[in-house]
Amino acid sequence: MTERTSPMPFPFDIRLRLLRCILPARGAAPAALMVMVSCMPAAFGQQEDDARFSNWNKIETAAETRAFKDAVTAGGFDAAARGYLEQIALPQLALEANRPTIERIRKRMREYLLAGISDAKTLDEASKTFLAFMGALAANGEADPVARVNAMLLIGELQGQDRRPWPPAAPVLAAAAVNPDLPKAVRVAAVVGLGRHVDGARGQAEAQQRLMPIVMPVVRTILAAAKGADQPPEIEWSAARCLAMLPALGPLPAEPAAEVVRILGDTMCAVNVRVRAAAALGLAAGADSKIDAAAAIRGIEAVGIDGLDRDVAAADRILLERQFGGGADQMPGGMPPGMPPPGFGPGFMPGGGTAPGFSASPDGFTDPSLQPPVEQLIPREVCRRAAWRLNALADAILTEDRKRGLSTLLPEPDRPPAEKLAQRLRRAAIELDATPEDPVLRQILEELKPAPAPAPDAAGEAEAPAAAASGAESQ
After folding, report:
1. In this structure, what DSSP letter does residue 212 have?
2. Is the alpha carbon torsion for 269, 271, 275, 276 positive or negative?
3. Predicted confidence (pLDDT) per residue in 427-439, tens digit
4. To the nearest 10°, the Cα dihedral for 229, 235, 238, 244?
5. Residue 450's pLDDT is what?
6. What is the pTM of this model?
């Protein structure tokens, strides 16, 4: 009995030419032909270990790739072309050899394999293959996490012929963004792609209307999860990104507007998320949003003060820890850094007297150039972040062109105080951005804090009964 052996598979470019000869010009492949084609990918399985396809650079120069590009450029996408994508090109995203340059390869896949397709139907079919393959890779729990994240990012980067995000990808991204079975990093990647779709719909009523029922449930789900303190960074980022999407979707409906107002007033939420909530209200809230604009403006003022207050409190904690916590940067005996030991100063010599070039002074520090500089306990980056926050809050109340903002929803007599608040916040932002220093931030905080209620005048209170008594006596 002779052993049966599998025939040597034809090279891909020859198979492609054979298929194109027997396929009808515009029709679907007969069933028998599809069965034959379904047997061919067995050769693709062998090609996964083929040294010719060991990394992406070899893919671009392969004869199979040239055959695929010739076919799709001519306006055809058949089973052989689909097999090439599924078995040769797209698996490259998960290969270990491509890991150091996976971001570049992800972008190159779309640009090299899809961007040159001019026929709408061909591009649609090829994009569907990308979508199905990358969706499966992103959901594969055994795949490398980096590959899963990049697969989801690639779904969000798919484009139509108009170079705008490819509409069929939006529902897939929306489902992934709120899928608890997916890793958080993959869900964040889905939010990134969904945000790209929303940004692409900006100013297009038809696209906004199409995306609204897809995106809004995702936004509400993510915002509902952003409750309480100490949220993971990915939750805070996703909530902030969802809030940034809202203005691009058009006027804010009442239900999501109420959720945004809740975020604005939630002191347990991260400050940046609350700032994004204010910005969303300022740009997208209208009469149909049914919000209390005056209360929202008061909430915006509170967010600005709260953010600065937290920055100052964090710096004060650092100072206390250095002074009383026995840190490594503390002098022996608990003295603050930069303070000389008793009996020693920059101008004093051990045992008394002054060093040449110094003159004595009561505090022992006679040369100002040797005084330790005031330490920047609030980093410059934190100051600049505070400046961004203040400017965003000012725009939420009233933009510089005075065309948008919550103050435009107020009755005319109630607008001046809100507009003055916007001006104060904007001036503070400009000042802090120009001079991002600890004392400037602290001074701005003091200026923005509301004046304390006047304390009862004890003398006045005492005079009032006396006056009443004298009046009674005169009667």
Report:
1. H
2. negative
3. 999 999 999 999 9
4. 0
5. 86
6. 0.74
Q: Which of 70, 177, 172, 163 is closest to 130 using CA atoms? A: 172
Torsion of CA 173, 175, 176, 177, to 10 degrees: 80
The ranges of the chain with pLDDT < 70 are 1-50, 228-229, 325-375, 453, 455-475
Cβ-defined contacts of 258-266 (< 8 Å, 24+):
258/290, 258/291, 259/220, 259/223, 259/224, 260/223, 261/291, 261/292, 261/296, 261/299, 263/223, 263/226, 263/239, 264/296, 264/299, 264/300, 264/303, 265/299, 265/302, 266/227
Quote the CA–CA distance of 406 and 281 in Å, as a whole number.
7
Question: Which pLDDT belongs to residue 20?
Answer: 41
> What pLDDT score was predicted for residue 462?
45
pLDDT in tens, 402-427: 999 999 999 999 999 999 999 999 99
pLDDT of residue 412: 95
* Rounded CA separation 337/348 (Å): 19
Tokens 């109630």, located at residue: 414
Using left for φ > 0, alpha for ψ between -120 and 50, and beta otherwise, residue 376 falls in: beta
What does the alpha-carbon distance between residue 89 and residue 95 come to, in Å, rounded to a whole number? Answer: 11
Q: Which pLDDT belongs to residue 375?
A: 65
Q: What is the pLDDT of residue 381?
A: 95
Closest CA to 263 of 313, 288, 226, 229: 226
* Number of alpha helices (DSSP H) and beta strands (DSSP E) in the chain: 20, 0
Q: What share of the chain is helix, strand, coil (3-state, %, to 5)?
A: 65, 0, 30
d(CA 338, CA 370): 10
pLDDT at residue 326, as a whole number: 55
Half-sphere exposure of 450 toward its Cβ, with a 13 Å CA cutoff?
7
The one-letter code for the residue type at 21 is C
Rounded CA gap, 214 and 172, in Å? 10
Beta-carbon neighbour count of residue 350 at 10 Å?
7
Instruction: Quickly list DSSP for 75-128.
Output: T---HHHHHHIIIIIGGGGG-GGGGGGHHHHHHHHHHHHTTT---HHHHHHHHH
What integer pLDDT is reported at residue 324 of this predicted model?
A: 82
Q: In the chain, what are the domain boundaries?
A: 10-166
pLDDT at 113: 95
